Automatic annotation (TrEMBL), chain A:
Protein name (record): serine C-palmitoyltransferase
Organism from which the protein derives: Hypsizygus marmoreus (White beech mushroom)
InterPro entries: Aminotransferase_I/II_large, AON_synthase_class-II, PyrdxlP-dep_Trfase, PyrdxlP-dep_Trfase_major, PyrdxlP-dep_Trfase_small
Pfam family, one: Aminotran_1_2
EC number: 2.3.1.50
Main EC class the enzyme belongs to: transferase
Cofactors (names): pyridoxal 5'-phosphate
Boundaries of every Aminotransferase class I/classII large domain copy: 132-419
Renumbered residue ranges of the record's region Disordered: 437-457
One CC-aspect GO term: membrane
Keywords: Acyltransferase, Lipid metabolism, Pyridoxal phosphate, Sphingolipid metabolism, Transferase
Family under the similarity heading: Belongs to the class-II pyridoxal-phosphate-dependent aminotransferase family.
Lineage: Eukaryota, Fungi, Dikarya, Basidiomycota, Agaricomycotina
GO-annotated molecular function: pyridoxal phosphate binding; serine C-palmitoyltransferase activity
TrEMBL record, chain B:
Membership in a protein family: Belongs to the class-II pyridoxal-phosphate-dependent aminotransferase family.
Domain Aminotransferase class I/classII large: 248-497, 552-647
GO cellular component terms, A-Z: membrane; serine palmitoyltransferase complex
Ranges of Low complexity composition bias in the record: 58-75
InterPro entries in the record: Aminotrans_II_pyridoxalP_BS, Aminotransferase_I/II_large, AON_synthase_class-II, PyrdxlP-dep_Trfase, PyrdxlP-dep_Trfase_major, PyrdxlP-dep_Trfase_small
Tree of life domain: Eukaryota
Name the record gives this protein: serine C-palmitoyltransferase
The EC number(s) this enzyme carries: 2.3.1.50
EC class of the enzyme, as a word: transferase
C-alpha cells in the first residue's frame, strides 16, 4: 500500500504543481477575476444552470467533432453487407444501356430535319434536294442574316480581335465590344444597364436562379418556355402557377400568395412574376400594361422573357415595351435573345444597375462561361443600329404578318393561338367539332380555378388532342409544303421532359426579308398543304 | 529565300516548304500589309538594326545571327501603334519587351505570326511531347501544406476581414443607411440581395475587385491590351482612364495559341463570313442546321476518335443542357467533388441522384461504387438503372489530371458509364492533342462520352459531346439544345474546322513522329488515326501549307508541352508550392493569405513587363488555399516563361511565398533559365 503511494508520489506532485501553475496563469490573465466571480456566483445562485451549461459545452464539442457529411451508413435504410456479398451484387448488376437506340419514328424525325447548304436566309438552298426554297422556318425576323454591312463590320472585328475571347468575363474575357453591346442594348431599350450572356437559351435559365433562391416565391405562367421551366427547377423556389396568359388568374394567385403569407406570418421573401412577352409555345402576347399594374399593386418583381418579342415588335423592334409604350425601367429583369432578335448569338438581361451587377457575380452561365466571340457582339451592335435607323424593316415585317394571317385565318381546319402581331405563328390542328362549337368558350367555362401549386391546369384532363397523330399529320403538312418549295417546321418539343406537354403545332417564322407578295405566295402554299393533308384526314 | 515575294504562313519557321503553291497562295491575302518590295526591304533593315542593338546572346541551337530580320516587324508596328498615342510619338516602342522577340530571327527564319499574338520561338530545344510514361502511376492530388504560421495567419486574416466587415456593417447601417437600402426590405419588397448572402461579396471580394473583370481589347493571345481603369471609391465604381497597357497574358485559355487575328484560321473565318454571314438563324432542329454543322461534327468526331459528335453553341450549356438527355430518375451520377458548375447544373436538372467522391481519389471512388451498387436506390433498394461517372480530364483550378487508367479498370469491374469533360484537356494534352485519352495512350472509345469545349485550345467558342452514333443521335433529339438553343454560328464553326484540321494535318499525311503512327489498332495499344482527309473539309477552305501539313499544329503542341513543364517545374525549383500534374498547362501557385492575392496581382501587373494573372479564392477554392492560376500557351516563348519565372521569384521573396522544397534543393532563377530544357524534362 505504502509502496504504491510512494511510486505515485511524483505523479501527485506533478499534478499539484501543474494545477498551481495553471491557476497562476489563469489569475494572471486580464479579466480572469471577473470570469471567476461570475462562474462562482452563478453556481451559487443556480447549481442546475452549471450542469446545463456543462452539458451544452459537451454537446458543442461533440457536434464539432462529428463529420460534416453524415455518412449514409448510420441511416436506418442502410444494409450491412460483407465484401463477398458486395462482390456478388456487383457481378449481378446489369445496367441499362446508356442511350436507347432511336426508334423508327425518332430516326425519321431526325432525318426530316432540313439542312441548309450555304448561307441561311429568306431563300436558302437545301442539302437534301439541292433546290432553293422559301424559308418560313428559320428565325430571321428582321432579315439581318446575310446583311452585307454586318458582314463587313464582322470582318473588321475579326482582324482586330480574332475569333474567340478565350476567357470568362471575370478573367480577361470582358472586351470593350462586349461593354459596347451592353450599353447599346440598354440604350436601345431605355434601361439603366444590361448584361450579356453567350447563349440565348441559357440566359433565362441562369437569370432565374441568380435571383430566386430557396424560400422565395415565383408566380409563373403555365405556358412558359422550356428554358424558364428549367430555370425555375434549378432555383428551388416555391412556385405558384397561373393560367396561361390569364391575368385575372394571375391576380387571384397573387392575392392567394399574399394571404398565405399573412396567415403564416412568415418573413418577407423575394417575390417574382415570370412570364414571356410573346410565348415561345404558342405566340400569345401578354398584356404588358396590365401586368405591370398588377406587379406594382402586389409588390412583385417582374422577370419578362422577351426572346421572341425583342427585335420583332414595336416601331423599331424594341419589343413589348415599345409596343405598349411602357418604360423599360418598369420591367425589373427584361430578358431577351441577341441570337433571335439581332441574328447573332447570345442573350441579355436588362434592368437596373443593381440587378445587372447582381448577375455578374451570381448568374451561373455568366460567371462560368466564356464570353461571346467579339465579332458576334459587334454584329449585334450593328444590328441595333440598323433597326434604329430603318423602322421600315419592322413595318414590312408587320405587313407580312398581317398578310399571312389574312390567308391563314380563313382556313377552317386549323386554329391559330398566336397574337395577330406575333412574328411566330403557331398552327394547331382544329379538334373534331363534336366537342364544342366554340372551343374557347369551353375553356373559359366557370369551373373552379386551377390549383396554383400544380403546373397542370384543371382542364388538362379534358385535352382532347392526340399528340402522336397530330404530330404525324403536321409532319405530313411540313413535307407537303417542302415539296412545293416552302420550308416550314413543326415546333420541336422534348416530349416527356416538358412540364406541360405543349400541343403539337407548326411554327411559321415570318421575315421582313421576303416581300409581301413572296410571303403571300409562300403562306398560300402552306395553306394548300394544310387543306390537302388535313382534308384527307377527315 | 526571295525577300520580296509574299511569304507563306508557317508560324514558327519553315525552311523549305515542298509545296510550290505556297508562293502564289498569299498574293491575294497577304497578312502583313507590305505594300511593296521596298517597304519590305526597309522593314528588314530596320529589323536588322534592332537585332544589332539587342542584347540577346547567341542561342546554342539556332543558326548564327549574322543578318537578322523579322518579316512581321512592319505589320506589328501598325497593330501595336494603333490607338496608342504614346507609341506614335516615339516611333517604334518596345520598352516593355513584349513587342519584339528577345532573340531576333535570322534571315532564314520566317515568322508570319505577330509576335504579340503568337511568340516567335525557333529553338527546337524548347519542345516536348505531352505523353504519359507507360506503366508509371498517375500522381494523385497531393495537397502540400504550408508552414503552420501561414495557415494560422490565413485564418486570422479571414477572421479580421469578417470582424471588420461586420463592424463596418453595424456602424454603416446606423450612420449612412442610404448605402444599405438595397439590402433591407423597402416599400414591401424584400431585398434582392440578402445582407447575409452578400456579405462575402461586399466585404471581401470588393476589396480585391481590381483583380477581376478587367476590361481588355484586341486579341487574347500571347499579350493582351488592358484598358486601364481606376477606382476612386474603393472599387465601388471603376472608371476607364482611356489609356491602354500591353501585358504578357498568362491567363487566357489559349492553350494552343489559336487566339489570333491573323493567319490561316482567321483567313478561313473571313472567307466564311463573306459566304455565310454571321448567323444560321435558329435551333438545330428547327431550320438552323447548315452543311457546315454536319462537316464540323464529322471532323470533331474524327478528331476525338469517336463515332459521332454533336456541337453546341456554348460550352456551359453542353453540360448543363445535354447531361439530362443521358441520365434521369432512377439513375445515379457519381461526380468528382471538384467538377465544374456546369456539370452540377446539368445533373441537377436531370433528376438523377448524385453522389460525390473525393477529388481524384480512386480509393474513395471504388468504396463509393461498392456502396451504391450494393445498396441500390435509396429506400427502395432497387438496382440503379445506370451509373454515370463524370470526371474532368484536366481540372481547371487544380491542374490535376483524372486518373483515367484506373477509372477504366474500375469501369470494367463495376460496369458504370464514363463521361469525361475535356473542357481544358482537349487540344492541350497528348502527343496528338486529343486530350487525356491520347495522353495516356488509351483508345478513346473505351470512354463512353467525351465532352469538351472549343473556347480553350481552338480559340473559338461552344462545345461538343461525342460518343457512339446512336447515343449522339439520342442527345440530338433529347438534349435541350436541339429544339431550343441557337445553332453555332458559321464563323465559330470555321475557326473550329480550321484549327482542328491544322492540328490533325490534312492529307497528304504527316511524316511519322517517331514511328508507330498509323491507323492500325492492335489489341491493347491505341494508335491514333491519321490526318483529316481533304474531302472532310469544305472545298472553299484552303489552309496554308504549314497548317495543312500539320507541322504547325505539331509545333504548337510541342511548344505547349515544353512551356507547361518548364513553368511548372521551374516554380517548384524556385521553392513555390504548386498543384497539379506537371504536364498540365494550368499551373496553380499557392498564395494562402487573402491579402497576398491583391498584392501578387498588382506586383505582377506593375512590372516593367506587365504580366496579368488570375487569382482565385474562396468560394472557387477552399478557404485557405487561395491561389494564382497560370494558363500557359503555345504562343509563349521560352523567354516569356523566363519573364514569368523571374517575376515570380522576386514577388515570391517579397510576399514570402516559397514554402515548397527546402532551401538546399532550390535553384536560383538564373540557373533555371539557363538549364530550361533540363528543368522541363524533370
Amino acid at each position: 500500500m505504502n509502496s504504491t503511494s510512494e511510486t505515485l508520489e511524483p505523479l501527485f506532485n506533478f499534478l499539484d504543481t501543474s494545477l498551481l501553475t495553471l491557476e497562476d496563469t489563469f489569475n494572471k490573465l486580464p479579466g480572469s477575476a471577473v470570469i471567476l466571480r461570475y462562474v462562482r456566483s452563478s453556481h451559487r445562485n443556480d447549481p442546475g444552470r452549471t450542469v446545463l451549461e456543462l452539458i451544452l459545452l459537451l454537446f458543442a464539442i461533440w457536434t464539432l467533432l462529428q463529420s460534416r457529411t453524415r455518412a449514409d451508413r448510420t441511416e436506418k435504410h442502410f444494409i450491412q453487407f460483407t465484401d463477398k456479398e458486395i462482390d456478388e451484387l456487383v457481378d449481378e448488376w446489369t445496367p441499362e444501356p446508356l442511350g436507347q437506340p432511336l426508334s423508327a419514328k425518332e430516326q425519321a424525325d431526325l432525318a426530316s430535319v432540313p439542312i441548309i447548304a450555304g448561307p441561311n436566309g429568306p431563300k436558302p438552298k437545301l442539302v437534301s434536294t439541292g433546290k432553293t426554297v422559301t424559308n418560313l422556318a428559320s428565325l430571321n425576323f428582321t432579315g439581318l442574316a446575310g446583311n452585307e454591312h454586318i458582314k463587313q463590320r464582322a470582318i473588321e472585328t475579326l482582324k482586330k480581335y480574332g475569333l474567340g475571347s478565350c476567357g470568362p468575363p471575370g478573367f480577361y474575357g470582358t472586351l470593350d465590344v462586349h461593354m459596347d453591346l451592353e450599353r447599346d442594348i440598354a440604350d436601345f431599350l431605355g434601361a439603366e444597364s444590361a448584361i450579356l450572356y453567350s447563349q440565348g437559351f441559357s440566359t433565362i435559365s441562369s437569370v432565374v436562379p441568380a435571383f430566386c433562391k430557396r424560400g422565395d416565391i415565383i408566380v409563373a405562367d403555365r405556358g412558359v418556355s422550356f428554358a424558364i421551366h428549367k430555370g425555375i427547377q434549378i432555383s428551388r423556389s416555391t412556385v405558384r402557377w397561373y393560367d396561361h396568359n390569364d391575368l385575372k388568374s394571375l391576380e387571384d394567385v397573387l392575392e392567394g400568395v399574399e394571404k398565405e403569407r399573412r396567415k403564416r406570418r412568415g418573413p418577407l421573401t423575394r417575390r417574382f412574376i415570370i412570364t414571356e412577352g410573346i410565348f415561345e409555345k404558342d405566340g400569345v402576347m401578354v398584356d404588358l400594361p396590365k401586368l405591370i399594374e398588377l406587379k406594382y399593386k402586389h409588390k412583385f418583381r417582374l422577370i419578362l422573357d422577351e426572346s421572341f418579342s425583342f427585335g420583332t415588335v414595336g416601331r423599331t423592334g424594341r419589343g413589348l415595351t415599345e409596343l405598349y409604350n411602357v418604360p423599360a425601367e418598369k420591367v425589373d429583369m427584361l430578358v431577351g435573345s441577341v441570337a433571335i432578335g439581332l441574328c447573332s448569338s447570345g442573350g441579355f438581361c436588362a434592368g437596373s444597375q443593381t440587378v445587372v451587377d447582381h448577375q455578374r457575380i451570381n448568374g451561373p452561365s455568366f460567371v462560368f462561361s466564356a464570353s461571346m466571340p467579339p465579332l458576334l457582339s459587334v454584329s449585334a451592335s450593328e444590328g441595333i443600329n440598323i433597326l434604329r435607323s430603318t423602322p421600315s424593316i419592322l413595318t414590312t415585317l408587320q405587313e407580312n404578318i398581317r398578310a399571312a394571317r389574312a390567308i391563314l385565318d380563313r382556313v377552317d381546319c386549323i386554329t391559330i393561338p398566336s397574337h395577330p402581331a406575333s412574328p411566330i405563328i403557331h398552327i394547331y390542328v382544329r379538334s373534331a367539332p363534336t366537342t364544342s362549337l366554340h372551343p374557347s368558350a369551353a375553356a373559359h367555362s366557370p369551373t373552379k380555378p386551377s390549383n396554383p401549386a400544380s403546373v397542370l391546369p384543371r382542364d388538362a384532363a379534358n385535352w382532347d388532342w392526340d399528340v402522336e397523330t397530330e404530330e404525324r399529320v403536321l409532319q405530313d403538312v411540313v413535307e407537303e409544303a417542302l415539296a412545293q418549295g416552302v420550308m416550314i417546321t413543326k415546333a420541336k418539343r422534348l416530349r416527356g421532359q416538358e412540364a406541360v406537354e405543349p400541343r403539337p403545332s407548326i411554327r411559321l417564322a415570318l421575315t421582313s426579308a421576303l416581300t409581301k407578295k413572296e410571303t403571300e405566295k409562300a403562306v398560300g402554299v402552306v395553306k394548300t398543304a394544310l387543306v390537302k393533308v388535313l382534308g384527307r384526314r377527315r | 529565300m526571295p525577300a520580296s515575294s509574299p511569304l507563306p504562313s508557317p508560324m514558327a519557321l519553315n525552311i523549305a516548304a515542298p509545296n510550290p503553291s505556297m508562293f502564289k497562295k498569299r498574293s491575294s491575302q497577304t497578312l502583313a500589309p507590305l505594300a511593296s518590295a521596298a517597304s519590305y526591304l526597309s522593314a528588314l533593315s530596320q529589323a536588322d538594326a534592332r537585332a544589332r542593338h539587342s542584347h540577346g546572346r547567341t542561342p546554342t541551337a539556332t543558326p548564327a545571327l549574322s543578318l537578322s530580320s523579322s518579316i512581321t516587324s512592319s505589320s506589328e508596328d501598325t497593330v501595336l501603334n494603333e490607338g496608342d498615342p504614346s507609341s506614335h510619338a516615339h516611333g517604334f516602342d518596345n520598352f516593355d519587351g513584349l513587342a519584339l522577340p528577345v532573340r531576333p530571327p535570322t534571315s532564314e527564319q520566317v515568322f508570319t505570326t505577330l509576335h504579340t499574338e503568337f511568340g516567335h520561338c525557333a529553338n527546337e530545344a524548347y519542345r516536348l511531347t505531352s505523353q504519359h510514361t507507360q506503366g508509371e502511376a498517375v500522381p494523385a492530388h497531393v495537397e502540400q501544406d504550408p508552414p503552420y504560421y501561414i495557415l494560422l495567419s490565413t485564418y486570422i486574416s479571414y477572421l479580421i476581414l469578417i470582424c471588420v466587415g461586420h463592424v463596418r456593417d453595424f456602424v454603416g447601417k446606423r450612420l449612412s443607411p442610404g448605402s444599405y437600402t438595397h439590402l433591407v426590405p423597402r416599400n414591401g419588397y424584400a431585398p434582392l440581395n440578402s445582407d447575409f448572402d452578400s456579405f462575402y461579396t461586399r466585404r471581401l471580394k470588393t476589396r480585391m475587385d481590381e483583380c477581376f473583370s478587367q476590361p481588355v481589347t484586341g486579341v487574347a493571345g500571347r499579350t493582351i491590351m488592358l484598358l486601364d481603369r481606376i477606382s476612386p471609391d474603393y472599387n465601388h465604381t471603376q472608371i476607364l482612364t482611356g489609356t491602354r497597357t500591353r501585358a504578357l497574358n498568362i491567363s487566357s485559355y489559349n492553350y494552343l495559341g489559336f487566339a489570333q487575328a491573323r493567319g490561316g484560321c482567321a483567313d478561313a473565318v473571313e472567307e466564311v463570313i463573306r459566304r455565310y454571314g454571321v448567323s444560321t438563324c435558329g435551333a438545330r432542329l428547327e431550320g438552323g442546321s447548315s452543311d457546315l454543322h454536319t462537316v464540323t461534327e464529322a471532323l470533331v468526331a474524327n478528331f476525338v476518335g469517336m463515332e459521332d459528335a454533336m456541337i453546341s453553341s456554348m460550352g456551359f450549356a453542353t453540360n448543363s443542357a445535354l447531361i439530362p438527355a443521358l441520365v434521369g430518375k432512377g439513375c445515379l451520377v457519381i461526380s468528382d467533388e471538384l467538377n465544374h458548375a456546369s456539370i452540377r447544373f446539368g445533373t441537377r436538372l436531370s433528376g438523377a441522384n448524385v453522389r460525390m467522391f473525393k477529388h481524384n481519389d480512386m480509393g474513395s471512388l471504388e468504396a463509393l461504387l461498392r456502396e451504391v451498387i450494393s445498396q441500390g436506390q435509396p429506400k427502395t433498394h432497387r438496382p440503379w438503372k445506370k451509373i454515370l461517372v463524370i470526371v474532368e480530364g484536366l481540372y481547371s483550378m487544380e491542374g490535376t489530371l483524372a486518373n483515367i487508367p484506373v477509372i477504366l479498370e474500375l469501369k470494367k469491374k463495376y460496369k458504370f458509364y464514363l463521361f469525361v469533360d475535356e473542357a481544358h484537356s482537349i487540344g492541350a494534352l497528348g502527343p496528338h492533342g486529343r486530350g487525356v485519352a491520347d495522353y495516356f495512350n488509351i483508345p478513346p472509345r473505351s470512354i463512353d462520352i467525351l465532352m469538351g469545349t472549343f473556347t480553350k485550345s481552338f480559340g473559338a467558342a461552344g462545345g461538343y459531346i461525342a460518343g457512339t452514333k446512336s447515343l449522339i443521335d439520342r442527345v440530338r433529339l433529347r438534349g435541350h439544345l436541339g429544339p431550343y438553343a441557337e445553332a453555332m454560328t458559321p464563323p465559330v464553326l470555321t475557326q473550329v474546322l480550321a484549327s482542328m484540321a491544322s492540328i490533325m494535318g490534312v492529307s497528304p499525311p504527316l511524316p511519322p513522329l517517331d514511328g508507330g503512327e498509323g491507323v492500325v489498332t492492335t489489341s491493347g495499344t491505341y494508335v491514333h488515326p491519321g490526318p483529316a482527309p481533304a474531302s472532310s473539309l469544305p472545298n472553299w477552305l484552303t489552309l496554308p501549307y504549314a497548317l495543312a501539313s500539320g507541322t504547325e499544329g505539331r509545333t504548337r503542341l510541342r511548344r505547349l508541352a515544353f512551356n507547361s513543364r518548364y513553368l511548372h517545374n521551374g516554380l517548384i525549383k524556385l521553392g513555390f508550392i504548386t498543384y497539379g500534374h506537371p504536364s498540365s498547362p494550368i499551373v496553380p501557385l499557392l498564395l494562402f493569405n487573402p491579402g497576398k492575392m491583391n498584392m501578387f496581382h498588382r506586383m505582377m501587373k506593375d512590372r516593367k513587363t506587365p504580366i496579368i494573372v488570375v487569382v482565385v479564392a474562396y468560394p472557387a477554392t477552399p478557404l485557405v488555399t487561395s491561389r494564382v492560376r497560370f494558363c500557359v500557351s503555345a504562343a509563349h516563348t521560352k523567354e516569356d516563361v523566363d519573364v514569368v519565372l523571374r517575376a515570380c521569384d522576386e514577388v515570391g521573396d517579397v510576399l514570402d511565398l516559397k514554402h515548397g522544397i527546402g532551401r538546399g534543393e532550390r535553384w536560383t532563377v538564373e540557373k533555371i533559365v539557363e538549364r530550361a530544357a533540363e528543368v522541363a524534362g524533370m
